[in-house]
Amino acid sequence: MNEMTIRLLLRVTARISFALCLGAFIAGPLQTFGAGKFADWLMRNRDRFLIVLGVSHLVHLGGVISLEMAIGWPRFIKEITLPVLIGGNIIFLLTYAIALGAWARQMHWNWSLANSPRFETFALYAIMIDFTGGFLVRVPNAMIYLLPGGVAIAALALRVAAHFRKAKPGGATA
């Protein structure tokens, strides 16, 4: 693959991963606010979203490695910077951990990480914040990124609002 094709692959897999993460991220909050059949469908398929997110991000990782091989390390590290490389690796690890946790739940394996809602919540917040930042830093050069950036911010706000709604006495328990 040439550099342009690899960059296209990276954009496509990033957007697919965002859509899958978004579905898993908003499923619970939508159900908290009683969004009906769509929220129920998202909740029923949440683990599937997370598993496919892991697969999509694995393809994305392959694209990142291919890009480095195509353009060389000096240009690659200059383009993405060392802090982004380190942070991105952390996000990759969190993504794979929640994907494997979802797989373990589907397979009925007794893996402590698969049954850790706090870890999954932390990981999903970290991933969604990473997506949000990734979109918003691109806005000055391409205003189209306002749309996914706005969707990501709205998803974060929805999740926080659902948390506070559940925390109130007499709030939703779903």
Question: What's this model, at a glance?
Answer:
With 174 residues, this protein is mainly alpha-helical.
Structural notes for this entry:
The chain has 174 residues and is mainly α. It has one domain. It is built from seven helices and no strands. It has helices at 3-32, 37-44, 46-71, 73-80, 82-107, 117-136, 146-167. It is globular. The mean pLDDT is 93.
List the helices and strands and how they pair.
Blueprint: H1 3-32, H2 37-44, H3 46-71, H4 73-80, H5 82-107, H6 117-136, H7 146-167
What descriptive keywords fit this protein?
mainly alpha, 7 helices, 80% helix, 0% strand
Structural class by SSE content:
mainly alpha
User: What share of residues is helical?
Assistant: over 70%
Number of domains: 1
The termini sit apart by: 47 Å
Q: Which geometry do the CA atoms define? A: globular
Average pLDDT taken over every residue: 93
Which assembly state applies to the chains in this document? single chain
What would you report as the Rg, rounded to the nearest angstrom? 17 Å
Unreliable stretches (pLDDT < 50, length at least 5) are none
Taken as a percent bin, the fraction of beta residues is: under 5%
Q: Helices and strands, in N-to-C order?
A: HHHHHHH
Number of β-strand runs: 0
Q: How many helices in DSSP terms?
A: 7
The biggest sheet amounts to:
none
